[in-house]
Amino acid sequence: MDITRFISTHRKLLLVGFPLLIILVFLATLPLYGGVYYTRLLTTILMYVVLSVSWAMFSGSTGYMSLAPAAFFGVGIYTTGFLQNTLPFPVIIPIGGLLSFMLALLVGMVTLRLRGIYFTIFTFGLVVFMSEVVAALESELFGRVGQHINQLPGETIFYAMLVTAVATLLAIYFIRRSRLGLAMLSIGGNEEAAAHMGVNTTRMKVLTFAISAFFMGLAGVIMAPVKVYIDPRIAFSLSYSFMPILMSIFGGMGQFYGPVVGAAVFGYLEKTLRGQFSTYFMLGFGIILVVVILFLPNGIAGLVPMLQGKLSGVIAKLRKGGKAEQHANT
Amino acid sequence: MRILEGQSVTKYFGGLAAVSKVDFHVDQGEIVGLIGPNGAGKTTLFNLISGALPLSSGEIRFKGQKLHGLKPHQICKMGLSRTFQETKVFSNMPVLQNVLVGAFFGSPNRVSGADAAGEVTQALEFVGLSAMSATPVIDLTLVDQKRVEVARALATKPELLLLDELMAGLNLTEISEAMELVTKIRDTGITIFMVEHVMKAIMGICGRIMVLHHGEQIAEGTCQEIACNKTVIDVYLGEEAHAGS
Questions:
Q1: Does A190 contact B89 at a Cβ distance shorter than 8 Å?
Q2: How is chain B split into domains, by residue range?
Q3: Measured between alpha carbons, how far is B202 from B221 in angstroms, rounded to an integer?
Q4: Distance from B40 to chain A by nearest Cα, in Å?
Q5: Is the pTM of this model over 0.90?
Q6: What fold is seen in the domain A37-298?
Q7: Bridge-partner residues for B164, per DSSP?
């Protein structure tokens, strides 16, 4: 009795929550039966989920196209590099996040006055700049560039990434629904109008840029042990900037789950296909992306409302047809 | 009481004085019209008041407080809101969310979700858009987008509302509806300062009119006075009378 009532009042929550719970249980138990390969694959996918969702939170809603994910991700990787022998891994994770957060605050305060392409180019430059800074720092500290990262068990890395991904998704889900999310959207809609409606646009932009950098930094710290060896070129590889963007576009930025879908699909494809068809992989990747941009401007997530619209159109037509028949009969 | 007051307000763009030594004031409860030929500096003056542009020299006071150095979002929270000549709606949101932004952020205090929702409902009803609250704002016609801007501005709970060519591009029926709306807003206690080219509307609802030409104020007075002012007829009204015939 109570259960049926509960089901009817929380139907939507259950419809979404139950599958999510199953996915979570599946992921949480994966290392038990998945083996090394799938644990590693899922770790990579979850990393892309964190990067894409945090990128889309800021850039997707405000319209400020940031190419900086690689900078914040790299800061995370190198936080592990510099601190691995002095601090335990679980302590390094939040430190990497905070360092990225602070870097983004600093950069944001200077550059978020720039609009459009200028901001994008600056964030691109930031990746290169950070890579140089870290190289200089490394040779100063250790007398050489590049270092080995202490190995950690694959399950440890996987669980750290899973917890981070869940935390990121929850945080960003609530940010998107909060007034901070509304403020970001209003900046994307029309920044001047947003300012005139009382939105402190500069503060909102800097804050959300830094929040997104925090999550990217976390992911960087956790991925470092997977890499075994790092140097600035590996840590600050621009593909960590481009992949999250492509995944977000592919998945669709309008919906919260869009970048998640994009990251899952492309993360999987990248891992599995790159090994077998390394030359053709990027080509296929590019073609798929062009097709999506041309025919699905709102990404895969944009398919859902489109199909819903079509479906309800068909149903309405059928009903109308039915009614017309009835009329004809009477 | 003077709610808005400007003294020798000046704005240079490079060497060009877009607004030059303009003195003006708006009293509480008034509807004041601002007219003048294209390029006279009307919108620039509005941008100076709302904080979109910094003053070159002079001073603007709102409720006795200097606006110098304040950002648009701070000025909005003080109770001064505006609409835009070229509609600047939040194109990526439905109507309701557009107005919600004003309700949430326009007030100096933190507004609860329930209060904001209430204000949005009220503002949408006031401008007659209740039925379209879920519609994406870009699907609306120009006149309805302008209504959204008015509702959004009203949701910030302003004491003074700047309307920048609210009636440009509207047909005759829409103009008289807009005139009614403006009067209705004034009747709720909100003071109005409006830029307008539609003389019928200006003459119909404004208590006082200010005329700008080449950035300078050339006349100020009641509708009657302005309509008979020779300089104004020469630089502005005359043109229109010819155009109308």
A1: yes
A2: 1-25+44-70
A3: 13
A4: 22
A5: no
A6: ABC transporter involved in vitamin B12 uptake, BtuC (1.10.3470)
A7: B195
